[in-house]
Task: inverse folding
């Protein structure tokens, strides 16, 4: 929230918007390897509550691995992933995921 004075100058009296934003997903220094093969290396990402994000890239670029790491389905080799400040495995109620192909 930004409040301005009534003096006409438009000077900000209080700016609270930056503190009111909640971090939905935070990824810091994330690396994921499958055996000796790196799939992700030193990924950093912050997604705030209400923000939309698209992930694009070539085949084998690590998009699915990134989503799996966010979901807690693959363990990080290095770094961390948090969902609203918690481990993804403890945040299942905050996560919705629909894979391209349903495996029944």
Result:
């Amino acid at each position: 929230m930004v409040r301005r004075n009534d003096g006409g100058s438009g000077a900000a009296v209080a700016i609270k918007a930056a503190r009111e934003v909640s971090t939905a997903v935070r990824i810091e220094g994330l690396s994921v390897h499958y055996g000796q093969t790196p799939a992700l290396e030193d990924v950093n990402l912050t997604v705030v509550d209400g923000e939309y994000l698209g992930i694009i890239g070539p085949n084998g670029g690590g998009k699915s691995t990134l989503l799996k790491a966010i979901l807690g389905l693959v363990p990080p080799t290095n770094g961390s992933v948090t969902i609203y400040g918690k481990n993804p495995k403890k945040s299942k109620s905050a996560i919705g995921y629909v894979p391209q192909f349903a495996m029944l």
In short: The two ends are 47 Å apart (CA to CA). The chain has two helices and five strands. The domain at 22-89 is CATH 3.40.50.300 (Rossmann fold).
